[in-house]
Amino acid sequence: MDYIQIHPRDNVAVALRDLPVGTTVACESGTVCLKENVVRGHKVAICDIPAGEDIIKYGCVIGKATQEIAAGSHVHSHNVQTELSEETAYAYAPVHFALPETKHRSFEGYVRADGRVGIRNELWIIPVVGCVNGIAENLVKGNQDLVGGSVEGLYTFAHPFGCSQLGEDHEQTKKILTDLAHHPNAGGVLVLGLGCENLTLQQFQDALGSWDESRVKFLICQDVEDEIAEGSRLLAEIAAEMRKDVRRKVSAANLVVGLKCGGSDGLSGITANPTVGRFSDRLIALGGSTILTEVPEMFGAESLLFNRCEDAAVYQDAVQMVEDFKDYFVKHGQVVYENPSPGNKAGGITTLEDKSCGCVQKGGSAPVVDVLRYGERVKKRGLSLLSGPGNDLVSSTALSAAGCHLVLFTTGRGTPFGAPAPTVKIASNTALSVKKSSWIDFNAGTVAEGESLDDAGERLLDFVMEIASGKQTKSEEAGIRAISIFKDGVVL
């Protein structure tokens, strides 16, 4: 395959490899000859497009022609502009799609006392305040002898917050950190504080609610003479309890998977994202759950999600989520449509509508059953939307905090980062998979080479069961994992 017209309504085709001038492109509207070189992931007009005419891709409007575009010409930011604005009227027009049939899947996981299942059994140190990041890191380095057997790793997650924050920022830091303390992949947690921070131990415990005292312990560094010795003692106690844990065979219905993209290219919406969408539908058909975030990357394609809301109440929550994020942009003096990064544009993504139409395909076709606020944990089985920004590490942290066992991260350009939850990197093109084999876990570029999306989705579902059973992702093998917490207000 050299190119693809994604939808019969489209007036552009997408190059699946670099196409030189003179290449013949045959689509439903007829045959055209390329008037210029078009690189992989970029668009070519397959008919004459008058100035002011809609540019249609995925069967959706992704912008407007700023000049006449002749058939066979490159279509990109030099001759297309967004049609997005801060004011959009929505109407609920519910649609329903049947979920696919798929064979039963299971994995080997850790069943927790409360019935939840973890796919890792790790010991986490959670700093309540950035002042103790160094202490947490020294405790990790000095206690690696605890790792082994069913204690699968000892990690901490540095951040600069927990003090000098006010209002919503303070609440969001507290929510994310307490959510992580509840994460099913953490078989044990040491909560590490300083002693004079705004986010007090009492506040943290109040927000945490109930906890297993044998697996969740607290240390305030100012209260002890030697915080390293005391921290090491507490970690050893937690690890001793974790060594009782064993993996057991459980249904795929227990899985919660986050859906995320970053460093996208023109193939992301054609190969990797719809592959993840096929996976999502299959996991949900098995009784599992997925969570889609990146609200700014829904702008321009939000109605595709809104109309899949299972009822009017969920629809209203989804609309409010999008409107709140638009208000956030406006409050900070920013337009809602300036989102595609330089890397996105170089890869062939022209407008935010272009990016969003590809982005939302990760959510497949299942009904939207719930809308979660930032810092809120998953409550319902099925597909949920989570309020959060497009930033890779912020949104992946939010997905982890929401209870995702792992995050599927599609990319056309590659990235090495890892979230607290195992982060599976899915390449949109085979060249990236080969070039960055130390970053990429799964190649969806095969879809551009002839593999069907359904076959790719089944293959990804099988691969996720391997990850859930203990197979490490490339970022885990490299020891790369971090968090980033959303911040909006002042710092004292």
What is the overall shape? globular
Biggest beta sheet summary: 7 strands, parallel
Q: Give the N-to-C terminal Cα separation.
A: 57 Å
Uncertain residue ranges: none
Our Rg estimate from Cα atoms comes to: 23 Å
Give the % helix.
25-40%
* Strand ordering within the main sheet: 19-20-18-17-21-22-23
**Strand composition percent:** 15-25%
Average of pLDDT: 95
Question: What number of structural domains do the residues give?
Answer: 3
Helix/strand class = alpha/beta
**Tally of contiguous helical segments:** 13
Strand tally is 23
Task: Give the helix/strand layout.
Layout (H helix, E strand, L loop, with lengths): L2 E2 L7 E4 L8 E4 L2 E4 L9 E3 L8 E4 L2 E6 L8 E2 L4 E2 L24 E6 L5 E2 L3 E6 L5 H10 L11 E3 L10 H15 L4 E8 L7 H8 L7 E5 L6 H16 L5 E4 L4 E6 L10 H14 L3 E4 L9 H5 L5 H20 L10 H5 L5 H8 L8 E5 L10 E4 L5 H10 L4 E6 L11 E5 L2 H6 L6 E2 L9 H16 L5 H4 L15
Parallel strand pairs: 12-13, 12-14, 14-15, 17-18, 17-21, 18-20, 19-20, 21-22, 22-23
Antiparallel strand pairs: 1-2, 2-5, 3-4, 5-8, 6-7, 7-9, 10-11, 10-16
Helix pairs in contact: 1-4, 2-3, 2-10, 5-12
